[in-house]
Structures are given as structure tokens and as C-alpha cells.
Amino acid sequence: MKNEPVISANNLNYSVNNNQILTNIFFDIYKGDFVGIIGPNGAGKSTLVKIITGEIEKYSGEVSIKGKIGYVPQVEEIISTFPMKVYELVLLGLYKEVGPIKRFKKYHYQKVKEVLQLLSIEELYDRQIGKLSGGEYRRVMIARALVSDPDILILDEPEANIDKPGQELLLNILKKLKEEKNMTIILVSHDLNMIFKETTRILCLNKTLHCHKNTRDINMKDLKELYSEDFELFAHLNGTMKAVVDKHDGNT
Ligand SMILES: Nc1ncnc2c1ncn2[C@@H]1O[C@H](COP(=O)(O)OP(=O)(O)OP(=O)(O)O)[C@@H](O)[C@H]1O
């Protein structure tokens, strides 16, 4: 029998100004799951993530979370004039633990070094964040999410602005976190190649939950339903994605 879920949504509904954004969402996510959340633009993926992280509080239904969450939000522009060094940004990930009054201790700085090392960016420790490349900045944001040793890591479109080698590196890091720490990982992404390559479960979301299955059980029908008539174009634009889908598509 499986353990208790670490994230559980029970009849979750969310609307803003009478605009229904999420409807009747039920799902359970278990420790060590590597979950991909996919769906078209405006499907409510980021909204769902913000509900899980607690950023959005006024929803109806129940969402229960067991464990500490590390969150890498969708790409924000780097404010190049903002005078902050990489280690200072990563330390902000420990802010909840240290609080507004206490100062960071030596071991907090050590923790920052360790997490930068894990992500192979230790040489960025002292760099100004405004001088980082887009890919470097993404990894620093992941470091900030990981520095507090979360049980659950949530990443919202982390592949944006990163080149192919950078994406491979990112996937390898996520794989390592799952294998070595049995971390629960949630990855929101439009890159279906990336999603199909490493995730174990997929949530297909478009305002309602179309399906929640093992990645290997997702088929073309599920994806066509999710992306509707735009799917053929979408598949074409994604190029090799179709091959990945076909590989998994044992039923049609
Ligand atoms: N604060 C808000 N006020 C009004 N509408 C909102 C608000 N936040 C989100 N929405 C709407 O909710 C819907 C879902 O948005 P959300 O950002 O969650 O989608 P998404 O699936 O993450 O999209 P994308 O793939 O484009 O990032 C959109 O139609 C969006 O315009």
C-alpha cells in the first residue's frame, strides 16, 4: 500500500471576479513522485502552483501539504541595476528559518556554498545578479529554492531562456535530487520532450483536470483532448516531441 500523499487536492475550485480558473480539481501526489503539469496557455498551471505554495489563499475546497516546499517561480526579469550578490539572493531562501531579526550564521553561508556546488555554479558565489546570464540566473533561483532542504521542489517553466545544454543540465540536477534525496518534484512546462523524458506522473490541466496518470500511460488521445484542435500544430512545432509521444502511445 502507498504512503499518505504529500500533496492532496480535494474538490479545489478557484475563481477571480467571476472568472472560473480552476474547477473540481482532485489529485494526490506521493513522496518521490516526479510530476509534470502540462496544459495550454491560460490553463491554470501557475495558479495551481501558487495555491500549493500558499501564495494564493482564497480558494474553495481543500489542499493539504505535508513537508517543506522549495519554489522556483516563472521567469522574472533580472533587475540589472539591483545591487545584490548571488550568495545574498540564495540566503533569502533561508529567511523563513532565520527570521527578520536574527542574523545569518556561518553555517548558513556554508549551506549556500554547498547548494551552489550541487548545481555546479560555485564560481558565481560573489557575482552581482545583474551580471548573470539567463541560464545562470535560473540556476541561482533553483539554489535559492533548495538551500532550505525542501521535501518538495516546484518549478514553474524553468526551461524558459535556457539553451539545450542548459536544459539537459537542469534535468540531470532534478534526476539527481529525486534519486539521491527521494525529493518530490513538480515541474510545470510546455516542453513535452523534457516532461516525457524524466517525469513519473503527468497532470493534464485545462481549467479542469483532464487526466492524472503515469507518464508511460499518457497517449495521443489524452494530449489531443488537452490541447484540442491546436494539438497538431503544437506537435509540429515541438518537432521531436511527436516521436516521444508515439513511443509512449501504445493504445492508439
Ligand atoms: N489575478 C488574476 N486576475 C484575473 N485573472 C487571472 C489572475 N491570475 C490568473 N488569471 C487568469 O487565470 C487563467 C490561468 O492563468 P495561469 O497563469 O494560471 O495559466 P498557465 O496555465 O500558467 O498559463 P501559461 O502557460 O500561459 O503560463 C488565465 O486566463 C489568466 O488570465
Describe this entry's structure for a reader:
With 252 residues, this protein is of the alpha/beta class. It folds into two domains: 1-67 and 184-252, P-loop containing nucleotide triphosphate hydrolases (Rossmann fold), CATH 3.40.50; 69-150, Rossmann fold (3-Layer(aba) Sandwich), CATH 3.40.50. 37% of the residues lie in helices and 23% in strands. The protein has ten helices and nine strands. The chain has helices at residues 45-53, 86-91, 95-98, 106-118, 134-146, 164-181, 192-198, 220-227, 231-237, 241-248; strands at 7-16, 19-29, 34-38, 60-65, 69-72, 152-156, 184-188, 201-206, 208-214. β1 (7-16) and β2 (19-29) form a beta hairpin. The two termini are 31 Å apart. Adenosine-5'-triphosphate binds at residues 16, 19, 21, 39, 41-47. Keywords: ATP-binding, Nucleotide-binding, Transport.
Would you summarize the structure shown here?
By secondary structure, the protein is of the alpha/beta class.
Question: How are the secondary structure elements laid out?
Answer:
Layout: E1 7-16, E2 19-29, E3 34-38, H1 45-53, E4 60-65, E5 69-72, H2 86-91, H3 95-98, H4 106-118, H5 134-146, E6 152-156, H6 164-181, E7 184-188, H7 192-198, E8 201-206, E9 208-214, H8 220-227, H9 231-237, H10 241-248
Parallel strand pairs: 3-7, 3-8, 5-6, 6-7
Antiparallel strand pairs: 1-2, 1-4, 8-9
The structure holds adenosine-5'-triphosphate.
Helix content: 25-40%
Strand content: 15-25%
- Tally of helical runs: 10
The CATH topology of the largest domain is what? Rossmann fold
> Which architecture of the largest domain does the CATH hierarchy give at level 2?
3-Layer(aba) Sandwich
The CATH superfamily of the largest domain is P-loop containing nucleotide triphosphate hydrolases
CATH level 1 name of the largest domain: Alpha Beta
- Give the class from helix and strand content and strand pairing: alpha/beta
Distance between the termini: 31 Å
The Cα radius of gyration reads: 19 Å
The beta-strand count equals 9
**Uncertain residue ranges:** none
Major sheet details:
6 strands, mixed
Average the pLDDT over all residues and give the rounded result.
Answer: 87
Count of separate structural domains: 2
Q: What's the arrangement of strands in the largest beta sheet?
A: 5-6-7-3-8-9
What pattern of helices and strands is seen along the backbone? Answer: EEEHEEHHHHEHEHEEHHH
What ions, cofactors and ligands are bound?
adenosine-5'-triphosphate
Q: Judging from the principal axes of the Cα atoms, what is the shape?
A: globular
